Structures are given as C-alpha cells and as structure tokens.
Amino acid sequence: MSVTRPCAVVPVYNHEHAIGAVVAGLRAAGLDCLLVDDGSSAACAAALDRLADADQAVRVLRLPVNQGKGAAVAAGLEAALLDGYTHALQIDADGQHDVTDVPRFLRESAAHPGALIAGRPVFDASMPRARFYGRYASHVMVWLNTLSFDIPDSMCGFRVYPLAPVVDVIREERPGSRMDFDLELLVRLHWRGVPMRWLDASVRYPTDGISHFRPLDDNLRISWMHTRLVFGMLRRLPRLLRGKFA
User: Fold this and answer.
1) How confident is the model at residue 160 (pLDDT cuts 50, 70, 90)?
2) In the chain, where the domains are located
3) How many CB atoms lie within 10 A of CB 139?
4) Residue 147 burial class via C-beta count within 10 angstroms: exposed 0-12, middle 13-18, buried 19 and up
C-alpha cells in the first residue's frame, strides 16, 4: 500500500462561530489543517488566527478579497501539494458535514490512494426540499456530460482528493471559482479517467445558519458551466463512447 500524507483544506468565509468545532474534529482525526480565509470579516479572521496560534498543525492561508469557494479550495489544494501533502480532505467550514465521517474517508483513501473519495450525501430533515430536488437538475447534466451514472452526486463538498492529478486539472483547466467548482472539477477528473469511490456522508444544514449559496448568481454560473461542459463533452464524444463500450 502506498504511503499517503493527508491534510484538511477548509475554505472559510465568515464562519467564525462554526469553524472551531470543525477544526477540533479534524485534529481529533489526526489531520493537519489548512484554513483558507476567503476575504472574511475581521471577526472571522481573528477567530482563524486564534486557532492557528493555539495549534501548530493549524495554519491560515489568507486571500486578500473574497474570491469564492472554488477559488479558496483551489488555492488550498495547490498550497497543500507544495507543502508535501499527497492528499487533501475538503470539508466545509459551516459544520454541515459530520466530522465523525472523516476517519472512514481517510481509511478509504489510504486503501485506494489513486482515487478521489467523494461523499454521497445523506441529508437530515434540515435540508429544504426545494434545494433537495433542485440538485437533480445538475446531476442530470453531469450524467449527460460524462455519458454515465458514475457520479451519483456532484455537489457534496466532502471529499478526499489525490492532490497531484487534481492540481493538474486546476492549473490546466481553471474550473469555476465559486459554487460551480465542485461540479466542474468532478466532470473534468472523470474525463481524465481519475477513479472515484463513493461513501455515504451525513449532511445537515449549516450549524451557524449561514449559507453563501446565492440562488440567482450561482444558478446562472452553474448553468453556464454546464453549457461549456456540454461542448467539451461533444469534443470528447468519440473517446467517451470508446471508453464506455470498451
């Protein structure tokens, strides 16, 4: 089995009330933590600095202005690779992911180091039904763009990435910088043949009541992303079909 060196990459934008519990859970799982401050308020920035000051395994990467979740994750993944980590667990800062799932995801990653380990969300009653059903429009487009059902959920931001192939995609393809990032990255990794393994992950709505999803702007971004990916799929259609029926 290959030796892996994982860390956690956490994009943070004004989640000073929830981030402490998230970091505590990640540290309990033995992970170093890279907190990417995506232009947060002074109060949140101070909370992140306190966490880093209290634990040398926690550090802050600070973006000067808010650039979006995707840009923050991308910056964190590139920094983690440069720091010598082989894998990175992406988790949201708002407490919606259950940190007790982290060891299970890390074990799966250690057993399959070349694979992306992705969360298949199991929602509790806090999930608004409109958001629950709205996700399926994106899922259908992802299935179209990959000509497969290999990606059962494209929007869950709880994943363990093998850093080398993922950072290659980030550098070469420049996936979307906001809520479109998670979806586009999965499709482009699928096109490159990166194996993916799926584990159930408990998801609840943010513990601090803050969601940065902007219905109009982010849905427009995601729609435009899917349009671009359709043209990318059409360019790759002969190869995708050969792979599908090989």
Assistant:
1) very high
2) 6-245
3) 16
4) middle
